[in-house]
Description:
Number of helices: 9
Order of helices and strands: HHHHHEEEHHEEEHH
Distance between the termini: 31 Å
Shape: globular
Structural class: alpha+beta
Largest sheet: 2 strands, antiparallel
Amino acid sequence: FMRAHGYYVLLRFWGGVSLPLTPTGNPELAALPRSSAQAVFDQVEEDLQFAQQHLPVNWNGGGFPDSGRATKGSATATLIQLYVLASGDQFKNNPPVDGDASINNITGSYWIQAQDECRALIDETDPSRAKAPYLYSLIPDLAYLYSGGTNEGGDWVPVREMDDLGPEIMWSTTYDPDIHDGTWLFNHWSGRFISPYILDKFEAGEYRALIKHDSVQRAAQGYIVPRHVKRNRTGNDNENQFYFARYGGILLLAAYVENEVNNGPNAFAEA
Length: 271
């Protein structure tokens, strides 16, 4: 599942990328030529279908909390996103670039596959909740998803009532106050680093390097801090997550998919 997630993100940004599938201790051996966008898509699809079979419905035997951990629902949500990405109109009629590495070169459309996955997940009689055995459902107030807060006597006090993310979160980066020197994975700017080896692969002054990296090098770690990982910072000690998939977002995708499959909205989409 984690490999599928990583390559799905790369496919969105770059189309076809190099596709090493076995570990290597030598970064030079991992620098493979770009694969086709179709090959990356096919690998992500295969890995997610495997994850659907082998991940648990949840990690607690009977309900939440899962703290955003990867589950069967996480794999299904990512598969829906993958199918919609590959079928979206934003890529149609665009001239190919970079040969078959262009995302325009993914063949066919996958609206029917996306529809099948959506309908396997969503309770059509009451779309506010998922079908059994899934336990996802809409929450009544978005305040339960995003934690604001106040500083009270030097202590950060979140406003949100904690229910360990609640039943709407299908896949997120898990809050962990011990991830790095008291900072937070994905939520705090010093929680993730990029190696000098990767940094040196960018050409001097290249735009991608400018938007992806801070100019400050952390001497103690020897890494450059990725700029766009700074997310959801509502306080110095918050409990916000980086949400890759929420049930509400999948409902919106499901309506979009139904509209595409049926050439217009139907009762399921409108519900």
